[in-house]
């Protein structure tokens, strides 16, 4: 039974004998690199890079479900890439929001102190 499943995978149109298997498999390294960047401070995250990679993930996830045969390896790696990129973008936005909040507090404090003098 296991041999027949392995044989079916091996001979699948998107199986290991084709580029349709290996390209998404190596794309997992983009996800690994993005997850490793979770340890980076949000200041070092690039909006343009993360937006480009998330669009890439969304486009290819959609494409992998339209083509025949469906490429589940491509779908899973592209979906994971989009999710990790959206998380990175949210980290950057939360940082900017925090800086804006601190700036407004300092501005309002200095304004209030200036009014009492």
From TrEMBL:
<dbReference type="Pfam" id="PF03650">
    <property type="entry name" value="MPC"/>
</dbReference>
<keyword id="KW-0812">Transmembrane</keyword>
<keyword id="KW-0472">Membrane</keyword>
<comment type="similarity">
    <text>Belongs to the mitochondrial pyruvate carrier (MPC) (TC 2.A.105) family.</text>
</comment>
<dbReference type="GO" id="GO:0005743">
    <property type="term" value="C:mitochondrial inner membrane"/>
</dbReference>
<keyword id="KW-0813">Transport</keyword>
<dbReference type="GO" id="GO:0006850">
    <property type="term" value="P:pyruvate import into mitochondria"/>
</dbReference>
<keyword id="KW-0496">Mitochondrion</keyword>
<comment type="function">
    <text>Mediates the uptake of pyruvate into mitochondria.</text>
</comment>
<keyword id="KW-0999">Mitochondrion inner membrane</keyword>
<dbReference type="InterPro" id="IPR005336">
    <property type="entry name" value="MPC"/>
</dbReference>
<keyword id="KW-1133">Transmembrane helix</keyword>
<protein>
    <recommendedName>
        <fullName>Mitochondrial pyruvate carrier</fullName>
    </recommendedName>
</protein>
<feature type="transmembrane region" description="Helical">
    <location>
        <begin position="98"/>
        <end position="116"/>
    </location>
</feature>
